[in-house]
Amino acid sequence: EKNGKRFIAAVDCTGHGVPGAFMSIIGNHLLNEIVLEKGILQPAEILNHLHKRVRTVLKQEEQKKQSPDGMDIALCCFSSPPLEGVKGEVQVKLEFAGAHRPMYLVSDGTLKEIKSDKFPIGGADANEDKKFINHNLNLKKGDVIYISSDGYADQFGGTNGKKLMSKNFKELLLANSNLTMPEQEKILDATFEKWKGSRE
Question: Which among 18, 79, 180, 196 could bridge 157 via Cys, Cβ 3.0 to 4.6 Å?
Fold first, then answer.
């Protein structure tokens, strides 16, 4: 939290095991530095700075054979306190920016995908000219948002050993969006385990 704004992110770092953990530590440190120390509070600008800092820290600009390391991220920023909307309805201002990771908004029984930019934070073919887009939304009571890595939709399983796919993931989110968050968690977990079966 910084200056009345609250931030939440879902981050998917490259690598597994120690390299993945190392990348996670770097990402967490840089996000704290950008938001808490430098006071940059717009999600798109945060991602622009994060992209540059990751490339600097990993020396990706200097290397002839650049490393592919980086991360995908969905970053949300909520205004605090909520705003007074039309007809006295309380609204929450939400800003979103994403690198390869979208945000899903369920409102009035419809799921809308707020698309992310189609390039990662850092990485081998990073283009310094690319800038992230900031999305501004007003949320009302009853709206639900979801951010995630691609892990759930990419899980192999079912009878044919295929990926779950984002279409099925979105349908699952929408079908259960009216339940409490603990109830949704149980359904998401049970559905995932059933789909995965004995696979890794």
Answer: 196
